[in-house]
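Cross-posted from the bioinformatics board.
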Amino acid sequence: MNALGISGSPRKGGNTETLLDAFLTGAEEAGAEIRKVILRDLEFTSCKGCNACHKTGRCVLKDDLTPLFEEILAADILALASPIYSMSITAELKALIDRGQVYWARKFILKDLYFEYEHIKRHKGFFISTAGQNWDHVFDGAYPVVTAFFNDIGFEYTDNIIANNMDEYKGIKGHPTALEDAKKRGRKVVGELERIDREN
Amino acid sequence: MVIKVLAFAGSPRRHGNSETLLDWVLEEMEKQPGVEVEKHALTDINIAPCKGCNACEKLNACVQKDDLVWVEPKIIEADIIILSAPIFCMGIAAQPKALIDRAQVFRSRKYVLKLPVVPPDRKGKRIGIFLASAGQDWDYVFDAAVPSVKCLFHVIDIKNKDIRNLMVNNVDEKGAINDHPTAEADAVALADEVIATMREMKGERL
């Protein structure tokens, strides 16, 4: 079983990446193989909106996201992590998500890609995020975007692991429960997948 | 009296639906006396994503010296700021999101350093316009993008009442907006209303 974490934060070791690390650590403790990819370290461009994939089912861009998408589709557990900037995810993570258009095109235009219900239930997607603001609605702009991405690639949108009010807590380490909760959630999802595999 | 309009075409696709909507607005504005229009396509200029370093909270400037260096003062000088963008995956496309996030430098100026973003005599005399297109026909397809765009306008001292949105859904392939029943007329009407409102804001006698 493998868990892939993708950090869309431009800041190294910041609140969101630390929360992602806690989730991955939990998954590892429960027996998953984990890997973390930091988008900032990759070379890639965002979707050009050329719609070539609507006809060919392939993206004309070939860069570091090309092999990453192979890894994404091969993951059992996928955690997308981004801090909230201007009421949504960062431009880096948005660029990755926009490049997922090719899977949308294959599903809905070319109809050569289809995910069975069983496949979706067995592929667990998580959104991991932190925000400086204390507003409860600060994550609302991110959810539809994350939903669209998980839909395109055949993952269940399993849960959000989120913590707001980072400015007040002076960072994620000052938050009373977030890191421990993330770790627990990482452990728990491995158990959920093991149960699904036992039943099949 | 001069009205300065600064527009960003945020789509990675040149002359697509959201940019066509922008061009309709700009052409109508330009017909009117005293209106100066400046348009930039984000594909032609280099504005990298925000690094989240928070240096602007101390420096009152961004450490990334890309095209934002010359764009930043233009955003302040303009009376009307327009952003056009397509919706990709239920949110604003990545390139215009990078521009929005880089406006953090204004947020720091306004809320952290408590410095004026525009001179006091120009406060409340600026208008922001968001023009968007989306392929999906869902009417909620713009919901996640609007709060991000509001962030941009708020940090450059444009209040909600001075923000206009014209958002056209169900236009996907290039040129689809040309067949939309009301988009062009809506764009023209918006341009006229905004220029008339700006003349009032500036206290110009009609």
